[in-house]
Write a sequence for this structure.
């Protein structure tokens, strides 16, 4: 029963992340910073990390990136989003070890957003073979803090809801990898 | 709502932002304000090298890959002015004027970079 519930839940999460990422790409933020997104799909990563742990979060994230690529992406966008996504989930997983005593959902999400940006920009510098893209870094970091906070807030709200309605087993420490 | 670890995160990120911001300023300062050369690179191959300071009238260049692009060159500046690609991030980047400015069409791997003159030292041998 638990297994079925898990499969159903994760599949729903993948489709929701896909829709969020499509909506995301249509919302223009700051023409001055090309390529900056709100990152709504990261809400999903947060929720899955919280309830299911590292492995499932990575799998969902990678599947979502590939699906987004099928729907409307270029290969390079795929490479950038998976590299940012994997780094960000890894960092968030490490921080979740200290949840909820040391870090709040917002703090974890901010770190996730920041590491996502760093991962993407590093990959972009490799692809474009230039280190000049790093001049975007300070502005990306600031945008990451702002959006990370918002995403963390939404994620916290959703996690609280899931806990309250007892939709899933709540564990304070996600099961090991 | 603010926990112990959050404060540490805040401090670390503030440090990251300041370091990257000032690091870039320092780097640009030491690169010196030499002649501005714009490079148009497609797939790693440099197609054009344009001395922006010696441009007297507006020129437009067509660069095509999977999508069509029009690059506009004026005195001291260069930009993507039109592109067919879905994101149009390249066009939205606007004018490139300073050392280190860069615009790219990622799907087509077309990059415009503004560099200093060729005396930028990458390595020294003696």
């Amino acid at each position: 029963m638990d297994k079925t519930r898990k499969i159903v839940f994760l599949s729903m999460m993948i489709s929701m992340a896909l829709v969020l990422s499509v909506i995301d790409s249509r919302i223009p933020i700051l023409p001055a910073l090309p390529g900056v997104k709100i990152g709504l799909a990261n809400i999903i990563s947060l929720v899955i990390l919280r309830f299911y742990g590292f492995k499932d979060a990575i799998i969902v994230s990678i599947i979502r990136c590939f699906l987004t690529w099928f729907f409307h992406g270029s290969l390079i966008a795929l490479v950038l989003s998976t590299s940012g996504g994997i780094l960000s989930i890894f960092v968030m997983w490490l921080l979740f070890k200290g949840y909820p005593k040391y870090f709040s959902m917002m703090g974890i999400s901010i770190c996730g957003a920041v590491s996502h940006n760093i991962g993407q920009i590093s990959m972009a510098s490799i692809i474009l073979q230039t280190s000049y893209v790093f001049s975007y870094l300070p502005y990306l970091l600031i945008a990451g803090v702002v959006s990370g906070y918002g995403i963390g807030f939404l994620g916290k709200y959703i996690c609280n809801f899931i806990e309250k309605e007892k939709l899933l087993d709540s564990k304070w420490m996600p099961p090991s990898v | 709502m603010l926990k112990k670890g959050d404060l540490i995160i805040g401090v670390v990120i503030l440090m990251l932002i300041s370091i990257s911001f000032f690091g870039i300023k320092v780097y640009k300062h030491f690169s010196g304000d030499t002649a501005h050369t714009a490079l148009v690179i497609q797939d790693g191959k440099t197609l054009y090298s344009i001395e922006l300071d010696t441009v007297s009238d507006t020129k437009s260049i067509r660069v095509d890959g999977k999508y069509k692009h029009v690059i506009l060159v004026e005195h001291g500046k260069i930009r993507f002015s039109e592109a067919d690609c879905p994101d149009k991030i390249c066009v939205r980047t606007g004018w490139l004027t300073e050392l280190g400015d860069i615009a790219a069409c990622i799907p087509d791997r077309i990059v415009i970079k503004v560099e200093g003159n060729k005396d930028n030292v990458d390595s020294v041998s003696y």
Observations:
- Strands of chain B lie at 37-42, 45-51, 59-64, 68-74, 77-83, 102-105, 110-115.
- Chain B has a mean pLDDT of 81.
- Residues 42 and 122 of chain B are 22 Å apart (CA to CA).
- Chain B touches chain A through 31 residues (CB under 8 Å).
